[in-house]
Design brief:
With 342 residues, the chain is α+β, with helices and mostly antiparallel strands. Among the domains are: 106 residues, Ku70, Chain: A, Domain 2, CATH 2.40.290; 71 residues. Helices cover 37% and strands 23% of the residues. The strands form three sheets. A seven-stranded mixed barrel has the order 1-2-6-9-8-7-5. The protein has a two-stranded antiparallel sheet with strand order 3-4. A hairpin with a 2-residue loop joins strand 3 and strand 4. The N and C termini lie far apart (87 Å). The C terminus is likely disordered.
């Protein structure tokens, strides 16, 4: 069962919907402990006075705001408590806005909004009304002693709440893109054509954290007793960008990839060949040798992943070529037989 991080209600007008918030995401980052080399002992940190070098107990520690130059403003715990927002069990909707008006920069962490067991009807009423009007609710909630601005939006028949950043937390971007360069119509047309050739539907399951997968594989292999020797990765020299040449090469590669994928699909093998070869490539490093296992330090490039499909299509075409020659020989033999009979 999902962990509840907040319980309360959403109110709009005179309607109140009892709800609870549960996490919508989970971090998959791989974390490490610091150990002493040779002994494996854990490294611990202690609170030490910068002046005396002695350890300081927590009851002797206060909070100070750095003014710079070694000067601090000390804030007492009771002063912080007096300013802390009062815990509230209600999210009061202040506005309904269009989702397109909110830049994704303002979104922080998402949570699922789950209705109480006796609040299914008003919950679905709010969901359907927001779906039909394509609106997002803006409100506030006190979460972990901090008042947060939130956006509540419909998501596949339920509600999702997004913790938002305040306007002064989003940095201005004016001038970061540099001076606007002149773009020719031909360059723009080729750029559009390249974008259209790569356009498709967003399928999140297609994308993987390849670094994390390789790191976990490395951990598993070392835990199994395999000795690993990492190969140094050579740095490629910086290339001078020729915009037109890069656009033309990108379009050519996109066309070749599309043609190869189409040929493999016609052959009925395109959907199976590439995944099998990819899985075989991932399993290859697991073989142990007396010396050491070799690790590819960098993830495969996009063009490298597509190469097996192209190769499969080329081989399929090569296998079909003899059939044409056989047919040609058969027609020649039939013609000779007819002449002899005549």
């Amino acid at each position: 069962m999902a962990t509840t991080i907040w319980t309360g209600s959403i109110s709009f007008g005179l309607v109140t919907v009892p709800v609870r918030l549960v996490p919508a995401t989970k971090s998959r980052d791989v974390s490490f402990h610091q150990l002493q080399e040779g002994t494996g002992a854990r490294i611990r940190y202690r609170r030490v006075s910068e002046a005396t070098g002695e350890e300081v107990s927590t009851d002797q520690i206060v909070k100070g705001y750095d003014l710079g130059g070694g000067q601090y403003v000390v804030i007492e715990p009771d002063e912080l408590a007096a300013l802390a927002p009062k815990a509230s069990k209600q999210i009061e909707i202040e506005d309904f806005v269009d989702l397109d008006q909110i830049d994704p920069l303002y979104f922080d962490n998402p949570y699922y909004v789950v209705p109480d067991k006796n609040a299914a009807k008003p919950y679905q009423l709010l969901v359907r009304a927001m779906e039909e009007l394509r609106k997002v609710a803006i409100g506030r909630v006190v979460l972990r002693s901090k008042e947060r601005l939130v956006a509540i939006r419909p998501l596949d028949g339920m509600l999702c709440i997004e913790m938002m950043r305040y306007a002064d937390e989003v940095l201005p971007h004016a001038g970061l893109a540099g001076e606007e360069g002149e773009v020719s119509e031909r360059e723009l047309a080729m750029a559009r054509q390249l974008v259209e050739s790569l356009a498709g539907d967003f399928e999140p399951e297609r994308y993987h954290d390849e670094y994390r997968e390789q790191l976990l594989d490395l951990i598993d292999r070392k835990a199994a007793g395999e000795q690993i020797v990492a190969q140094p990765q050579a740095q490629e020299p910086a290339k001078v960008l020729d915009l037109m040449a890069a656009l033309e090469a990108s379009l050519a590669r996109a066309s070749e990839s599309g043609a190869a994928a189409g040929a493999a699909a016609d052959d009925g093998t395109g959907a199976e060949v590439a995944p099998k070869r990819a899985s075989a490539a991932k399993k290859a490093p697991a073989k142990k040798s007396a010396a050491a296992a070799q690790i590819a330090a960098a993830p495969k490039s996009r063009s490298a992943r597509k190469a097996p499909t192209k190769a499969a299509a080329t081989k399929a075409g090569a296998k079909k070529a003899p059939a044409k020659k056989t047919a040609a020989k058969a027609s020649t033999a039939d013609a000779s037989a007819k002449e002899r009979s005549a």
